[in-house]
Amino acid sequence: MKSSKKVLILQGGWDGHEPHLTSKRFAGLLEKHGYTCEISDTLDVCADLEKLMDLDLIVACWTMGEIKPEYTTNISKAVGSGVGFAGAHGGMCDSFRQSVEWQFITGGNWVSHPGGDGINYTVNICKGSSPIVEGLEDFPVCSEHYYLHVDPAIEILATTRFPSPDAPYYHIANKPIDMPVVWTKFWGNGRVFYNALGHHDDVFDNYPTAQVLMERGLIWAAEGKQYTLDNNLTTERFETNAKMF
Fold first, then answer.
1. Strand (E) positions, the chain?
2. pLDDT by residue (tens digit) across 74-88?
3. Which CATH superfamily is domain 6-110+178-242 in?
4. Would the pTM of this model clear 0.90, i.e. be above it?
């Protein structure tokens, strides 16, 4: 039976995504639920596999950086064993553009935000898709409109329509689509949560539903570790598959 509730937040990369502010916000959301959060300004903490395996959750707030392959492998092993993995916007799905393993674990990667910042669009909740979205309604947002390449294994909790009326010229070569905004997936026994909102930290203040989604998603991902332990879930199949990396 696991007693402590530990979270590691990886904070760094491009300052434009305000990693110090988002890390502080996410830590506050988790601490309300009894989690102890460590915020790391270096990826070298990922060299310690034993430390990662002892966590309940890893939160990524790191944009456009570089990560050593052995660090990604350690994260893969930890999450595969049941440690949760979560993040928002470019802090998770534009973290390390050269790491396809990172993209495989997270379920997607950023490729464009047509028109840049200040685009008006609607986030459409996929009702009934998950307890994370229970009771939530569609809501408008003015921010970057994230276009992502996504893993077909994800479970989609919210979407947005492309093209946006604010930036139709940029999207003219592509057909209209519904792009995932919020999703969950599994990596081995680990629960993975992603929210494409969060270009600036104040998005979560300006659009309260975005913060509700974030808080619920963080907790959902973190609770998977205890579920894995309580149900004595095996990691044998995951460990076999992980050898390909």
1. 6-13, 36-40, 57-63, 84-88, 108-112, 119-125, 139-143, 147-150, 155-162, 177-187, 190-195
2. 999 999 999 999 999
3. Class I glutamine amidotransferase (GATase) domain (3.40.50.880)
4. yes
